[in-house]
Structure formats: C-alpha cells, structure tokens
Fold these 2 entries.
Entry 1:
Amino acid sequence: MIFGSDNMAPVHPAAMAALAQANCGYTPSYGTEDAMKQVTAQIRDLFAAPEAAVYLVATGTAANALALSIYTQPYQSVFCHELSHVHMDECGAPEFYSGGAKLLTLAGDNAQITPEALHAKAGEYHRGDVHQVQFGCLSLTNVTETGAVYTPAEIAALTAAARTYGMATYLDGARLANAIVAAGCTPAEMTWKAGVDVVSFGGTKNGLMGVEAVILFDPQKAWEFELRRKRAGHLFSKHRFLAAQMQAYLQDDLWCHLARHANAAGAELEQALTTVDGFSLQYRRDANLMFAQWPRAGHDRAKTAGAYYYDMPGTGAPDDILGARLVCNWNTTSEEIAQFAALVKG
C-alpha cells in the first residue's frame, strides 16, 4: 500500500534486463554508443519529428533546468504555475542554470495555466523596459502537479499566447506518458503539433531506474544544449546505461503500457475511496496522481497497517478531515488498492 510517489516503485524487469545486457563488454562513452543512436531514431519516430535533437539526462531536475536554460537569458523570465515543480521543488535550479532568470508564477485551478492568466501576468511587464525582466519562456507541466492533464488543444492555446510575447514553450513531461495516455493522443499531438518547443519525456516515474529524454524540436538549439549539459556535469561517461533504459522503455511501447496501468490504478483507487464517508477530491484527477481528503480515523487505520502516502492539509474542511497525496504506479495492484480502501473505510 505504497502511494507516496511513483518514484518509490521498483524498476521494471525489462529495464533491469537492459541494464544487465548493457553491462556486458565495452562500448564507446559519452553518448556515442550505438544504443543512443537507436534511441534517437526511436524517439524521432515516436514523436514524428525526424529532425529533433534527443538527449538523455539522469534526473528530472537536470532536464527541467537545462531545457529552460537554452530558451531563457539571465535577464529574462520563465512564466510557470505557482505550484509547478520548477518553482516549488527544484531548489532554484532553473534560475541557477539560466544564470539568474526570474520565475514569474501564475495561479490557476488544478495547477493549470490559462491563456487569460498568461496575458494578464504578461501585461504587468513591459518588453523593452530596461528596469524589468524581459519575456523568456513559458513552462507547463503535464501531468500537472495536482493530477490534471492539459489536452493538446489547451496546450496549443497556451503556446499561441506565449508566442505573442516572443516566448518559447517548455513542457515538463516527468509524467508525460501518463498525460498522453489520459488524453488519448499521440506524443506529436501533445508536443510540437501543439506548439511546444522542447519537452522532457520522463522515464524515472514510469518504471525506469533514472533517465529522462530531453527532446528539442528545433535542432539549431542542439549544440547549446550539449555544451550546457557538459558544463553542468550531466553528460554521463557511461552513457550506455541511460540509453539502455530508454531502449527498454521504447521497445514495444512499454512506456505506454506502464502509464496505462498506473492511470487505471489511479481511477480504481478513486472509485474505491468514493465509498468512504467524508471522502472528496481536492483537485481533478485525470491520470495516476490525486489529492484527496477523508476523516482522520481512516488515516490512522491505514497508516497503522503500513500504508504510506504524503499528508496534505485538508481544504475547506473541519479539523478532523485530513488531506493526502496518493500516487499509483506501474506496479500498483488491485489487491493493495482494495486493502487500502477497506482500511480507510473502517
């Protein structure tokens, strides 16, 4: 009954097998291995982007910060949601890697930005005024930090709004596979066809040991990314172990199957908890991540029995209603969902 994070899940056996296979013998280093060439071809095919530049890093923080840095100068700004990972959970990495760019935060239900909110926030600043930060980049997250999913149409509306200010758009895709499955679209429809300039295609939260792909749809940005990745200390010498994981992830659409299971488990968990008196969702759940609340006694029973999840404040509720962040993953079973729901219900 581990619902703390999809980061806590085990590595999928296919990824472990790929790592073991990659450990046999010798191979070129620093991303020049054949496996990386194959990964690049596979991702270009998956995203229907034959000219895209593809790079691998080991952490989501590196993916976010490096991707934003190639589109944001030190005197520019990154527009993002006030709950976004780049703002709340990166210890200033986007600011550091960009040389000091300013994060400008926006509010919005379900951790989503609207074009109207973007226009309103941008209207507070004046391009060409030397006393103010200039427009740099828009950063979106899909799945959002509270569990909602932007549709391709919603992303397209936001990227169009960003372009009116000369801004590129970065899509933080730590859970991109879950978002694509939930939206029922293709990777291309959710990214470059919707106006996204650069995206991270996360694997760590979806069954891999630790690898994220950064996909640049403008190959002219490739050399700058390579230099920034090296300078930041994120160019792995034994790069084959990153490439091997991504190969396994892409083989036979494993990424899609794992995300579909996690999303289905999220829906199953929500349905199971709806029978609990006092249960409610704090935000909309579209994929494998939800924020919910229910009476304190249910929390006590579940945690005493060994359930693990993150406590959150209750919203608009009496003191005996406590919140929770619940995340399902590729390895979540119906049995543990049923056990957890029974304990919460009492």
Entry 2:
Amino acid sequence: MILMTSKIRLGRYLQAGMIIGDFAVVNLAYWLVCLLFNVSPEFRSKLVFMAVNAGFVPSALLFSHMHKTRILFADRVVLQVFKSTIVYGATLVALFYVLDTFDVGWRSGCYFICVYFVCMSLWWLLSHAFLKKLRRMGLNFKRVALVGSNETASFLRHELQGDAGYGYRIMGVFDDNTTTLRNFSDFYTAPLHALRDFVRNNNIDMIFYTLPANESSDLRKVMEVADEMGIEFTYLPDISPSLRGHFLPSHVGSIPALVHTVSPLNRSINGIIKRAFDLCFALPMTMLFPLWGLPIAIGIKLSSPGPVFFKQKRTGIRGRDFTCFKFRTMRVNAEADRLQATENDPRKTRFGDFLRRTSLDELPQFFNVLIGNMSVVGPRPHMVSQTKDYSRLIDKYMVRHAIKPGITGWAQVNGFRGGTKHLWQMEKRVEYDAWYIHNWNFFLDVKIVFLTMFNALRPDKNAY
C-alpha cells in the first residue's frame, strides 16, 4: 500500500475564519445603515450596537454548518441566509424587549435587517466561491474511503467528483465482491479487511458505506473502524434509483420511513409564496400592457393579416388543458396546433421571427399567470399533441405537470429551449423540469428569473 502524503488541514482554521467573517458582515451592515440611512439616534447607541452583535450568536450557532457544507447551490445558500435573517430578526426583537430599547424605531430595524440580508447573502456566496477555488487548488479537501462497489457507490462517485470544488478525494474503494470492484479500477481497491490499515496510514477523513444493511457484521466492523479513528461515518442505503429525489426521511412511530413528496410546492405555505411571487410580476406587466402590447400588435398587423394573439390548447397542471396566449408570429395556417416551429419555418413572418428570438411573443402569458393557469417559473407548457406523443416515449414525462407550467423554467436557462429535433433533447428538458419540481424554493425562482433576463441579452441559436 502506498502511504499518501499528509495534507495541510485548513478546515478548522477556515471554519473559524468564516464565522469571524459573519460577525464582521453584521457590523458592516450596522455601520452601512448608520451611514446611508436616516436612522434614529437611539439606533446609533452603544447598547444597540452590543445587541446587534449579541443577537447574532444564536444564528451563528444554528447556521455554522453552512461553512462546512460542500455541495450547495447558490439558491440554497440564499435560502439559508433568509432563514438566518428570520432567526436573527426574532432574536433582536426579543433583546430589544428585554433591554427596553424599542425606541430605536421600526424603520431603522427594517433598514438593518434588509441590509444584513443583502450583505450576508453576498458574503456567503463569495466565501463559498472562495472555498471552492481553494479546493480546486488542492487545499481543504477531504480524503474519502468508499465501502461498497454497487450502483449506489457508482452514483456517489459521480456526485463527489462532479466538481473539484466540492473537495472530495476518493482514496480507496473496499468490497469483497471482486466482480463489481472492477468498475472502480481507477482507484485503489481492496477487500474489506484491509480498510482499517488503509484508514490509519492514509489520514482518511470520512467513510461512505453503501453496502446493504442486512450485512450487519460488515457494517458493524466498518463503524468500529470509524469510531476508533475518530472520523466521520456516513451510511447511504442501497435503494432503487427510482426513489432518489422523490422521498423525504420520516418516522412511523419509532420506525424509519421514506415519505413520497413530488414537490415542496405541495405545502400550502410554499404555494402561497409562489403565487405572491407570480402576482408581483403579472400585475405590473398586465397593467402596463398598452406600453408594450400596442407597438407589438401594430408590428404583427403590418407583417401579415390575421389576429394579434395566437391562442392554443396546452397541457397544464395535473394534465389539464388550458388556453395559452401568445403573440402571433406565423401566418395563419392549419398546422399551428400540430407542428413545432423550425429554424427556417416558412410559416413565420419576419417580425414574428424577431419576436420568437427575443421571447417577446411569450409576454401575453402574463395574463395566464394572472388568471392562475400558469406561473412565472415552471416547466414550459407543451402542445396537447406533444404531450400525447412524448408521454408514450419518455419515462416520467407527465411528472412535469405536477405543478403549473411557466413562462420560463430551469430547462430553458440551462440551454434547453426552443424546438426539439431529437428525442434526447426532450428527455434532458424533462430531466431539468423534474429536478426543478423536486427541488423548488423561492430563491431558485429568483435565480431563474435573473438568468432568463441575462440570457435574453444574448443570441440563442435554439430560439426560433
């Protein structure tokens, strides 16, 4: 066995540095509010300054794991900052009550909480980007021993190695099944009895165990190794791939259970938040319709005879059909409800082609959002004929109808918009839509809206 060289262990120092950085951001937010806003004199007092710092302690303790979590997307980071802001705000209110300092003014407090949220979001995003940069440089990584060479282990390998910035290095794979172990020939491989010495000699930080739990003797021995070495042990149950991303851990009494949940939007509070988000866009856009609708309507009328709007039956939530509104981009034809537009489609008008490439033809769908049969963000609604065809060809295609369709979506901002010449393109679109449905959160919607606006400034070869 080759003894691996020791690595510089920066983790504990980085963790402490990031927490100190959190407090620095709290103080920065406080001084920015004092400098930029007309806050009350009481807000500038030493007592409030001390409360602002002391009140952050519970939030710092509850969310300290954020600086250790390695696989985390930007929207999840902002979501955690939002939760931290709620905890911090509640703590400050309690402190002000105990200290009898409510004369600081609610407006000053609101200014501070908003600035805190923005500053802490930027800090956590930048600090995560910094840590990922360090890990790509070969610092602050974790040495991993993988026990098991089954399908779950294969999924885990791809997840851990998906980005060098995650900072995981699989140092060895251990299993008594020599047949499946061959699939991991690019790593050091050995039978289970060699694990103890390998962990000791190679400074392993954590063990991932993927073998079935019914092999209790192996599980017990591996846990003993982890306990003796004082390292992290993570058990990943060897379950069917069809369960991944669809179930949440729970209990029935004292018995562990997995509860099927299609989307976080099944919770009433999340549905209310998403509807409020939709109305914040739909109400202003529909009220301003004369400003953006009339010029486009004139262009459509000048380009070809026919109606300004194109109304088409699309598949919506739970597979129900609804009437989707668009600006007409084609000459009136009998195949509009059956054939997708192609890149050089002769049915398109020149002005209609411009509308399609800039996505301006989708603007009337804000009326659909206002009515309630669409959302700003969600899987794009397909023609009824497409739904019938693809539901037979693509597994779990109908899952994308578990929530309201959207004007823009996760698939679109990841490059899968426009026509689908090949089946694999629609399969990828369904994959992204399903991921969005299972992983929805408010800040993911915000992220998608910003990416959509950013992408609108760039030409897209798939937009036709």
